[in-house]
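Customer ticket, subject: "Can you confirm the structure for GTP pyrophosphokinase/guanosine-3',5'-bis(Diphosphate) 3'-pyrophosphohydrolase?"

Message body: Hello, I'm evaluating your service for our small team and ran a test protein. I'd like someone to confirm that this is what the system normally returns, since I don't have a reference to compare against.
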Amino acid sequence: MAETKTTYYNIDLDSYTLDPVQQEDLNQLLEVCREHLEDPDEQLVARAFKLCYLSHEGIERASGEPYYYHPVAVAKIVASEINIDDVSVVAALLHDTVEDTEVTLDNIREKFGETVAHLIDGVTKISGVFKSRDTKQAETFMKLLLSMAEDIRVVLIKFADRLHNMRTIQHLPREKQLQKATETMELYAPLAHRFGLFTMKSELEDLCFKVIDPNSFKFISRKLREKRESREQFIEEFMQPIREELQNQGFTFEIKGRPKHIYSIFRKMQRQQKPFEEIYDLFAIRIILEDPHMKEDCWRVYSIITDWYTPIPKRFRDFISVPKANGYQSLHTTVITKQGRKVEVQIRTRQMDDIAEKGLAAHWKYKEGKKGSETLDKFVHWVRDILDNPRPDAATEFVKDFQLNLYQDEIYVFTPQGELRTLPQGATPIDFAFDIHSEVGERAMAAKVNGKMAPLRQKLEIGDQVEIITGNKINLNPDWINDVVTHKAKSRIRQFIKQKERQVAEEGREIWEKRARRGNIEISEQDLMQVAHKLKFDSTQELFYEIGKGNFDANKLYSAVKQFTGTGRIEEEESEVDKRVVPSEEEIQQSYIDTARSLGDEKALVIDDDISNIKYSYANCCNPIPGDDVIGFISRTGDVKIHRSNCKNIRHLIQTDGERIIDVSWAKHIDSKFLGAVKVIGEDRVGMINDITDILSKSMETNMKSINVNSESGMFEGMLTVYVDDINHLDRVISKLHKVEGVKSVFRYE
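Agent reply: Thanks for trying us out. I re-ran your input and got the following:
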């Protein structure tokens, strides 16, 4: 094996003969390339396949299958689902070789050329040691974006890699599943949306949702299956008159009717606080006009649809005249049938549909790798503008800000000259100023919105015309950091804040130096750093900043330095500084193992598969009950906090402190009662509350802790907290309450 590892990248790949099994895998890949790519170089793909197989020979994935299956699957996604080119397929086959094997970039460059080497380098994770897993992920993400700015295919290959990892995530331990799913949901799915990869974004979100909240995923999936036949019948009845009219007028078209993806339905249920049965626009109908139909034909189709069905004016969107920032174009309208049902209809040409589904990949295909595409150039400019000299020491900060720029809701505003600018929803004139130019943002004094003076912190609306009034000097305000949403604005304001902090630190240093001279004491910068660490400061800069702010007395530093220079050490004593001590990850883990075994009365959970004597408590933010999918988080005191796996707070903890996430499961026999919250909406009639309490106490023998009711305009809204055994008990409560006369909706309160 050792000899193979050092020689396989030097063999003649063209003459190397694969075993029958691997040859069949190669044949299948080549068939996919022939079907979806234009004139692929099959010899080049075959050589890459052979090196992929040889370099990963003997290595298995978590599923137990040969590792080379993964890069081959990624290559198939690149070819069949993204449809880029044969060079990208080659890079996909070899994307893990430089990171995981002894193949070097020079080997790749020699055998496959500079372009393939560059693509692989962009996709490869950064090697080296970083202070934390989060920093490493952030650095990797920054590198991906930097490489993407040079060649857009880098990010497309990375998306294919992540998509296959998510499709096979079931083979990983639960903790790692949650970490990868959370990262994908927070970064890669929004990034896919930003780059117009709608199909991929939707699948990534559903795969993540299946991991994070499996119960809700199964519930919505089951409901969609149950409604499938009636949904298909309704779509056919809705489209029949439209189809006939389009055919009569000579249109060539395709009609698609499909349910919205599962996670988007869940989000709508959460946002509207409605049960599944009350979400009516569960599907969208898409009319795709084939070539040579043009955008003006989309308007003709819109006219035909609105002749048959009544449109809802507020739900009309013209993304053809004003495309989204990712190049998306389509007409959207929602109409009402004679039976009162709402239906969303999307109208677009075939090219528009390609771009809507495949975004960047379609732009790349339509420019055919030769002349530039305006939309593609905008992507590259956007990425470079976002990066804008990011500080290597602030990678995590960068990624946090970057997420704000992966907005799904956009607004369109105009300059005084009528130039269109796209900003995230919630943007202010400050964001607008920085979007125009950094110098405009720095010198912004006031703003005019639609010709009237407006606060710089005012949120902009779609269609606003914005004018920025600037001064001769920099006018940045540190408080603006909480009012801006774009990375460019946040980054510059944060830089300004850091600059101010450095000035305060310099003032603190001057205070210290005067005190040191007065006490006739000298200390080197290196020794002063040791003293700062002893006083629980990360650096002398932080120490001097606290002195400059007046939060730390220079006399305390003088005493510590005098003690250090006299004895070489500082006596430990209880002080305000000591209270700032934060335990290390290792100390937290050790505390968890050694001291977290003083269990209370309840034994409802099994932690780490077989440990049952662990002290734990339930998170108030999500209130888990037996049957919920749950996860544990080791607190800094060493005990375990139990969250529902779909809890927003646990997603944040997974990102920032993933090492402290542990797997937990409910015990088979649980005697305790748990608190569940239910929201009830219905008619405000006499006896309603009495009927609800009777159902709970008499029919279901369920104890109620509290009930809070608000009534207005003949309707009431109530919040009930009840003691239940598990999720099934809570579901039965909800089902019973649904049957009370006058109750319109009942659902678990999140």
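A couple of notes from the result: The mean pLDDT is 80. The domain at 20-212 is CATH 1.10.3210.10 (Hypothetical protein af1432). Feel free to reply with more questions.
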